Amino acid sequence: MDTDKIIQDLNRRFAVLLPEFYQCRIIFWYDEDKEFEDKLDEVVLENAKVIELTGNNVFSVKKLLSVDDLTTNYLVYSPCVYNRPDDNWLLDVELYSEEFRADLISIWMDEMRLILNPSMRKQVKNYRAYFNALFTGITIEERTELRWKNVAY
After folding, report:
1. How many CB atoms lie within 10 A of CB 98?
2. For residue 83, which of 91, 92, 111, 119 sits 20 to 30 Å off, Cα-Cα?
3. SS (H, E, C) 111-149
């Protein structure tokens, strides 16, 4: 996914009306493979600030999101991988926030309507060559048409 498409999608998500009792929208952009780390400077959003997690700033980001600024929309870019939930200081914030992924695996999983969880992502990654061959020869329109016909492609 290119940067312009990512910005457009994120701006669209931040423009959606907030649910009742919410004062701001926080979206966590997960990028474990760090595919977009060098392009993060290009991401400028209309209605949100961008924060990059470095591993050393987690506490200050948690304080900002939970105490200091409760009314500003934020995109939190997270290239961090946590082996245990106890290691993730932002887990409570992530649970009431939205998730965004722009990597190829997530796009495939979304198109196949698979559940986005770590074990399923691992399986799709293991069969990356298969899915790449499967999706390479078919256009998006053909995939959509086949999906409506309930035909496996």
Report:
1. 14
2. 111
3. HCCCCCCHHHHHHHHHCHHHHHHHHHCCCHHHHHHHHHC
